[in-house]
């Protein structure tokens, strides 16, 4: 809608989107905005899905130039527009995080801190009482490796309580 307001005299404002993670569970959609069915939005969506990028919206604004492109020409034009946008699009990788709490004796604190660093876990908070309680966050995909590793090196004395 913002592009319709920005370019009110354009002939077409075709769009495609992938909302969510590209590897599953994403909601996708497209709009040909008056172009012949399947010549604009669907080809744009195909490019987005081929790039395996999620949480992305593409809008191609087109002015009719007096030359009819035909169905094949429209497909190529809309696909190429999205492809060209990807050449300059800054991308950020989003990583699902998992939070957990580790409780250990004071004597184990430095060893646990070492292993947290080795497994790229972030120490969010550390509380000292009768024992040391460490709140951590890390990439969900690597969390089971850290839990298994700490369990092994401590002979079952150090466990992570994951928060869901």
From TrEMBL:
Residues 5-85 form the Impact N-terminal domain. Residues 102-157 form the UPF0029 domain. It holds the Pfam family DUF1949. PROSITE patterns: UPF0029. It comes from the Eukaryota. This is Impact N-terminal domain-containing protein. GO terms for biological process: regulation of translational initiation. Belongs to the IMPACT family.
């Amino acid at each position: 809608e913002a592009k319709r307001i920005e370019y009110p005299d354009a002939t077409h404002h075709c769009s495609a989107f992938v909302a969510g993670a590209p590897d599953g569970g994403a909601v996708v959609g497209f709009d040909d905005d008056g172009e012949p069915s399947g010549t604009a939005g669907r080809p744009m969506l195909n490019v987005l899905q081929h790039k395996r990028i999620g949480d992305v919206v593409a809008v191609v604004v087109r002015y009719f130039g007096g030359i009819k492109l035909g169905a094949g020409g429209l497909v190529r034009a809309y696909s190429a527009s999205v492809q060209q946008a990807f050449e300059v699009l800054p991308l950020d990788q989003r990583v699902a995080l998992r939070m957990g709490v580790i409780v250990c004796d004071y004597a184990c604190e430095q060893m646990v801190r070492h292993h947290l660093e080795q497994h790229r876990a972030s120490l969010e908070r550390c509380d000292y009482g009768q024992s040391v309680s460490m709140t951590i966050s890390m990439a969900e995909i690597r969390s089971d490796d850290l839990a298994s590793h700490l369990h092994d090196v401590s002979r079952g004395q150090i466990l992570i309580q994951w928060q869901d």
